């Protein structure tokens, strides 16, 4: 099975303990754990700092599953949950793959931390998750809410810890069953 994971730094596997954008080891990144557990061919298209693109790239026609998790950076840049959801809808609507091959994951809610100084950001991230679920239903695509997987976050309130990546992988594997 050919799978693409398209997202931001939490898909990339960013390790917030380093200063220069390092990554956790492959044994700790959720995308790599998914590869090992399933035997699937998985492309990690995570990128640090990625906001929801204005247009979808051309994903390969032989993609069996496209997993999309975006929106956290949009909220951190000051977009409202509603604005982020509108961007996400335009992005998802521009994907040429069959709807049955797309899975939208709502990122886990942020927590107070170095990058999250305001309880409003946490509330916005929870609102965004609810809006993502409604969007997935409207577009008739698969949906998972990572907020239900108890993901430990780093000191910044945004990035997964090593245990967070493992918890995310476990939650996603359960969802994909």
Description:
Helix 2 packs across helix 6 and helix 4 packs parallel to helix 5 (about 120-140). The protein has about 180 residues and is an alpha/beta fold. The longest helix has 21 residues, at about 120-140. It has a 5-stranded parallel beta sheet with strand order 2-1-3-4-5. It has 6 helices and 5 strands. InterPro entries: Ester_Hydrolysis_Enzymes, SGNH_hydro, SGNH_hydro_sf. It comes from Pseudoflavonifractor hominis. This is Lipase. Pfam families: Lipase_GDSL_2 (PF13472).
Assign an overall shape.
globular
Question: Radius of gyration from the CA trace?
Answer: 15 Å
Question: How are the strands ordered across the major sheet?
Answer: 2-1-3-4-5
Series of H and E elements: EHHEEHHEHEH
| CATH level-3 fold name | Rossmann fold
CATH architecture field: 3-Layer(aba) Sandwich
The end-to-end span amounts to 14 Å
Q: What is the mean predicted local confidence, pLDDT?
A: 96
Question: What is the helical fraction, as a range of percent?
Answer: 25-40%
What kind of sheet is the major sheet?
Answer: 5 strands, parallel
Total number of distinct structural domains: 1
**Poorly predicted spans:** none
Total helical elements: 6
In CATH terms, the superfamily is SGNH hydrolase
List how many beta strands DSSP finds: 5
| Protein structure class | alpha/beta
């Amino acid at each position: 099975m050919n799978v693409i994971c398209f997202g931001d730094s939490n898909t990339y596997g960013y390790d917030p303990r380093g200063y220069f954008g390092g990554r956790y080891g492959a044994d700790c990144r959720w995308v790599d754990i998914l590869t090992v557990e399933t035997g699937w061919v998985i492309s990690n298209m995570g990128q640090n700092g990625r906001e929801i693109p204005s247009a979808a790239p051309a994903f390969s026609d032989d993609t069996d599953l496209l997993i999309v998790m975006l929106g956290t950076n949009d909220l951190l840049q000051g977009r409202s949950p509603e604005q982020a959801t509108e961007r996400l809808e335009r992005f998802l609507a521009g994907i040429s793959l069959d709807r049955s091959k797309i899975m939208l994951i709502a990122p886990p809610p942020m927590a107070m931390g170095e990058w999250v100084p305001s309880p409003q950001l946490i509330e916005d991230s929870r609102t965004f998750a609810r809006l993502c679920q409604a969007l997935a239903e409207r577009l008739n695509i698969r949906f998972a809410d990572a907020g239900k997987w108890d993901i430990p976050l780093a000191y910044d309130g945004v990035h997964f810890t090593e245990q967070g990546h493992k918890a995310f992988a476990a939650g996603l594997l359960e969802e994909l069953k």
